[in-house]
Fold this protein.
Amino acid sequence: MATLLEAATESRTPESFRIDGVTVQVEGTGPEVLLMLHGWPDTHRLWDAQVAAFAARFRCVRFTLPGFEPSTPPDPASLDRIVELLHRVSLRTSPDRPVTLLLHDWGCLFGYQFAMRHPQRVARIVGVDVGDAGSGAHLRSLGVKAKASIAIYQLWLALAWRLGGRLGDRMARGMAKALRCPAEPSRIHAGMGYPYDIQWTGSHGSYRHGLPFDPPCPMLYLYGARKPFHFHSAEWAQALARWPGSRVLPMHTGHWVMCQEPQAFNAAVASWLEATHAG
């Protein structure tokens, strides 16, 4: 039997539909859905290499977060709105069986909350580079320099969101360059910064009512080990690794693991998906 990465790609069947003003793209075949969600400063295109790898065996479903597409008006989406969007997309694309989540950055926060609120809709989670970020254990694990670094870049992006316009765009692109983001600079804009504003100020419904993340299903957590600090605590990662079917895997990358080592990333995800499916 061909592995996930060896299966022929001719079976892709692209389609799209709209929910809540968001275009959802579906590509691939198979009974299972991989529901992909990105973070800052990316769009659904972050997952191009993963769609190419997995569309022969999964229906790959992805969309760009509200307000993140270039040349769109500001659209600060609350936590409740994005969780409900994920719920509706999962029901539309996989009404009879739970989905597998593939998440990165802010997509982790939103996807984890979706899994906590609708555990019956999620079979497995692949989380990339954001674990229990913001938890007491995570905050205790950070030194003063790491906390200052996080505050500086996040408040900078929140300010860029507030200022908007050309100045806000230049601020967002400058920070993206400093952080070595792989996204195309021309597609990065200040409107992508609203999650940071919500996180720090509690605007637009806040994120403070989010549930503590305790994975309700098997989870693969991959993270870039070549960073000055992590978005998870060692305590959380060790506990996750002990759960049957779950795995924690450091990669020799920075934050954008799937872009910096796409072949190794895809191979690790494919191996885990096959193993947990077989189990």
The domain at 15-141+214-278 is CATH 3.40.50.1820 (Rossmann fold). Residues 6-11 have pLDDT under 50 and may be disordered. The longest strand covers residues 122-128. Residues 18 and 121 are 20 Å apart (CA to CA).
